[in-house]
Structure formats: C-alpha cells, structure tokens
From TrEMBL:
<keyword id="KW-1015">Disulfide bond</keyword>
<dbReference type="InterPro" id="IPR036249">
    <property type="entry name" value="Thioredoxin-like_sf"/>
</dbReference>
<feature type="binding site">
    <location>
        <position position="171"/>
    </location>
    <ligand>
        <name>Cu cation</name>
    </ligand>
</feature>
<protein>
    <submittedName>
        <fullName>SCO family protein</fullName>
    </submittedName>
</protein>
<feature type="binding site">
    <location>
        <position position="84"/>
    </location>
    <ligand>
        <name>Cu cation</name>
    </ligand>
</feature>
<keyword id="KW-0479">Metal-binding</keyword>
<keyword id="KW-0186">Copper</keyword>
<dbReference type="GO" id="GO:0046872">
    <property type="term" value="F:metal ion binding"/>
</dbReference>
<dbReference type="InterPro" id="IPR003782">
    <property type="entry name" value="SCO1/SenC"/>
</dbReference>
<dbReference type="Pfam" id="PF02630">
    <property type="entry name" value="SCO1-SenC"/>
</dbReference>
<comment type="similarity">
    <text>Belongs to the SCO1/2 family.</text>
</comment>
<feature type="binding site">
    <location>
        <position position="88"/>
    </location>
    <ligand>
        <name>Cu cation</name>
    </ligand>
</feature>
<feature type="disulfide bond" description="Redox-active">
    <location>
        <begin position="84"/>
        <end position="88"/>
    </location>
</feature>
C-alpha cells in the first residue's frame, strides 16, 4: 500500500510540474455560495513557478532573516498570527510533533511561521508565543510592507476582519513546502493524516541540495 501511495504521489507531482500550476483551496480566504446558499471556500489557480522569492523579516530572537538563510535548503512556510484561535496553534503543534520524527534530517529543514498581523505580533510577542512549540520553528514579523511582500511572494492571502472586540485575521491556512532549489514542492494541510504529512516532509528533506 505504501508503495502504491508513493507512486501516486510521484505521478501527482509530475502532473503539476507539467502543467506549471496548482489549484489551491485556501481555507479562510473568502467564500462563495453553493447552489443551496451555503458558504464554501473559493478556489484560486496559482502558477507554482512564481511561488517564493526574496524577503527581509525579523525572527523571535530579533535577528534579521532573508531568503539567503534558506538558500539551498528545504523549507516550509506557514502564514498566521499569534491571536489565531485554532488553525495556527493547531498547525504549529502538528509541526512540532512531526519534526522530531524526522530525526537528524529535521535540522536541515527550515520552518518559518510568518505573522500576517505585525501590528500586534512584535518580536517579544512572537518569542513568548513560540515557547510552546518546537524551537526549530522560526517566527517572523516585520513592517506591514515587509509582510505584504512575503504574502505576495507566495500568492497567499491575508486581510483584517472586524470583530466586536477589535479584529481578527483571515489568511491562507496551508503550509507551503519548498525544495532546496527554492521551487514549490507541495503543501501540508490540516485535513491530512499525520502519516501523510510526515511522508511529505521526509520526501522534502530527502531532495538533493540545489
């Protein structure tokens, strides 16, 4: 069964590479109504060859981080914010459970949690928040312009949604997987089993250096 799954995954990857695009369903990035009037997530076609790029942000230790820090290494990018009630902590907890299972290979994988709420997510706030998760995960913040650049690089989505107590953030909820060559390699999704996610990460870190 595992062999069949691997073959199917390879075929999917080859198909995506051949077409040069990916149809991502972004949870929390706006909805449309179905025939019954029920809200469903919008689907947006994305050219995967354009994902990634240069950026300059600051991590939870106050260090400046750029694309040079992940050059030649597999990396994962997740957009969220520390006031997120469910998706963000759940995803970060899942990643914190998966990384130790990669063994020493986990040290080659760069995981970046990019805040889409820099007005509230200061370096100090990120440091406190990330103390609950695997220390290998870098939390990044910056100016609104710097964050918007990173979001645009990944064709992601983030916007403020007013609430009675202030606002929350609507944002792309998948984890982007990027190969050592800086090219898009797939995604992790909360709806997948831990086994499937672990398999994806193992294949990612097994890729040869760029």
């Amino acid at each position: 069964m595992r062999t069949v799954r691997r073959v199917l995954w390879v075929l999917v990857v080859l198909a995506l590479a051949g077409f040069g695009w990916l149809l991502l369903t972004r949870t929390g990035q706006g909805t449309r109504e179905d025939a019954a009037g029920r809200p469903v997530p919008r689907e947006v076609a994305i050219d995967i060859s354009e994902l990634g790029g240069s950026f300059a942000l600051t991590d939870q230790e106050g260090r400046r981080v750029s694309e040079k820090d992940v050059e030649g290494r597999p990396h994962a990018v997740f957009f969220g914010f520390t006031s997120c009630p469910d998706v963000c902590p759940t995803t970060l907890f899942a990643l914190s459970q998966l990384l130790p299972q990669l063994g020493t290979d986990a040290d080659r994988l760069k995981v970046q949690f990019v805040s889409v709420d820099p007005e509230r997510d200061s370096v100090e706030q990120l440091k406190t928040y990330m103390s609950s998760f695997d220390p290998r995960i870098l939390a990044l913040t910056g100016s609104r312009e710097e964050i918007d650049t990173m979001v645009a690089n990944y064709k992601a989505y983030a916007r403020k949604v007013p609430t009675e107590s202030g606002y929350t953030m609507d944002h792309t909820a998948v984890v982007y997987l990027m190969g050592p060559d800086g090219r898009f390699a797939g995604t992790l999704d909360l709806h997948e089993t831990a086994e499937v996610q672990l398999g994806k990460l193992r294949r990612l870190v097994a890729r040869p250096p760029a």
